[in-house]
Amino acid sequence: MQGISRRRLMGGALGAGAASGLPLLGTFARAGNAAPPTRLVILWTPNDAEWVDQYEAPLTAGAPLPDSLPNFLQPLAAYRDRLVVAGGLTNEFAGGHTSIGHALTGIDWIGPDGNSFWSGGPSVDQHIAQALGEQALTLGVSCGSKNGKGRMCYSAAETPVDPIEDPIVAFNALFSDIGVDDDVLAALRVRRHSVLDRVASDLQAFEAQIPAQQRPRLQQHLEAIRGIEATIDDELLAGCDPTMPAALDTDDNALVPQVLRAQMSILAQALGCGATRVATLQLSRAGGGTITPLWPEEGIDVGNNMHGVAHEHYLQPDNPAALADARAVEAWYSTQLAFLLEQLDSIPDVDGGTLLDNTLVVHAKELGRRHELNPLTYVMAGGPNVLDGDRYVSFNGRPHNDLLLTLCHKMGLADATFGDASVTTGPLAL
After folding, report:
1. pTM of the entire structure?
2. 101-136: per-residue pLDDT in tens?
3. Nearest partner of 247 among 338, 168, 151, 144, judged by Cα
4. Which of 425, 418, 428, 427 lies closest to 107, judged by CA?
5. Using an 8 Å Cβ cutoff, are 69 and 391 in contact?
6. How far apart are CA 30 and CA 351, in angstroms?
7. Which of 2, 105, 161, 178 could serve as 15's disulfide partner, Cβ 3.0–4.6 Å?
8. What are the counts of helices (DSSP H) followed by strands (DSSP E) for the chain?
């Protein structure tokens, strides 16, 4: 595909977004000597992992990752120097598969029961994007019906964000070739500057209300906003050259791996073209019952859906076949994460490095050990500008709200809490 101009990018996003509510483009990266922006990507996969082999004995808190990586990390061996495994975190809210409702929100759900609910606050991705004056990219694969167990992202309490599940729709929303004249472009720039002006004004008013020790972080956030303002009128990164994905039947279980990787490629291109700094990708709904790993060409051929695989191992921990299936599923998830890291690492950034150098990628699981909420473990990856890799850290019972707050700080925000303020204790040392 030919290189795409800034006018085409902005025009395509404006036309598709205005028509259907899909994400509009946010800030644009500058070529040259500009400081690269920090970006955030969250990949969510259902259920817990196979714990004994994967999250216990092989890993030592405070130490580098072992020479012989546990099963679930082996597909990520090429990126071990960029990996942090963070364990010992807890989810303080209602248990079971309703945890998807507070995985990224850090606040309990609202509703009559565990089948009819919405989260009680915004998710961290949407919160960060709103604070930065742009829109998050929200993608999904086989997320199922629109209810509390099928949605993890929220713009506000009881306001779920529907993920885009078709790669073609996502691509067209971001990169469709729709002409926009100079007057429309000028008006779009004015609107974007206006949004950022309001955000900056609100932050300056907030400064007088917070303790003095927290003000330096607020100033950093204001500087980040001024940097965004400077990019609005600049040219798009010269290397931006998005590639149209192949048309795929998103309802065909046999094509789930291809759809997932197409979404990952679009996500990486969206970050590389400056379409957004914040993106999420949700695989399946709570429990994972919408997908079955009958994918022999992927090295996995299990005749049970992801929910069934997890429960078989949970209920029969000494069954070798159930253990093998659980290990195969988690290794497959990590293989897909490795593909995402490869995509990010293949796209140049404005400082001469790659997108991965300046992106924090978080793989979040639905549940913790033995299909319970605690302890939770996250696999994170990124470049030296965002993360010190090759280590395992345990936070000994800290709430997962603290991780969500840490993501806010990594992205330049100055929040004192995130989600339920009575649960948050402070940012993590990552």
Report:
1. 0.81
2. 999 999 999 999 988 999 999 999 999 999 999 999
3. 168
4. 418
5. no
6. 9
7. 178
8. 10, 13
